[in-house]
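To the wet lab folks,

You asked to see what we're planning to order before we commit. Fair enough. Below is the target structure as tokens, and below that is the sequence we designed to fit it. If anything looks off to you, flag it before the synthesis order goes out.
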């Protein structure tokens, strides 16, 4: 019979959330002040948490009824139509990107992020673009973590990487 260790994962999550909350609030304020649109690029479990929280707090139709920055989720398909629609939604608007990927090599997310990063860099320049890109990734390794560190992007980590997070 497995040991009842799920409380270890919950404790880790609570400690990490408490520790990262000030940085998250600061990033949210910056995004609100310099962006009309936030693009959240990810796929599967990597971005579903972010989407669930946004929709739980702001509602499913927040982009239609709220005045703040519009939040669009992308990078979960290789559809050129979906990517072109996201590009259209950013046209003439100030935007930021939160790329979410544990490894940084997931095809759909990596493809969308490369296109959107180039669009952002062409729009505001590389230096300003680097101030509008946020990476949610592994805390220690992976392609996205390495790129974020090199470019100076703010990062946040996946809260748990071990079996301790799984309820017994």
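Sequence we intend to order:
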């Amino acid at each position: 019979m497995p040991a009842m260790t799920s409380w270890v994962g919950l404790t880790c999550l609570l400690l990490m959330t408490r520790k990262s909350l000030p940085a998250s609030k600061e990033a949210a304020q910056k995004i609100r002040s310099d962006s009309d649109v936030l693009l959240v690029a990810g796929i599967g479990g990597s971005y579903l948490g972010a989407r669930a929280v946004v929709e739980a707090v702001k509602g499913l139709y927040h982009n239609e009824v709220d005045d703040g920055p519009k939040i669009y989720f992308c990078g979960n398909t290789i559809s050129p139509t979906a990517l072109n629609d996201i590009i259209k939604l950013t046209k003439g608007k100030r935007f930021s990107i939160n790329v979410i990927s544990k490894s940084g090599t997931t095809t759909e997310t990596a493809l969308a992020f490369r296109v959107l990063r180039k669009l952002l860099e062409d729009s505001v320049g590389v230096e300003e673009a680097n101030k509008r890109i946020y990476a949610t990734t592994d805390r220690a390794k992976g392609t996205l973590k390495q790129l974020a560190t090199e470019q100076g992007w703010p990062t946040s980590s996946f809260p748990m990487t071990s079996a301790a997070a799984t309820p017994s």
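Structural context that might help your review: The longest strand covers residues 95-100. The radius of gyration is 17 Å.

Thanks,
Computational group
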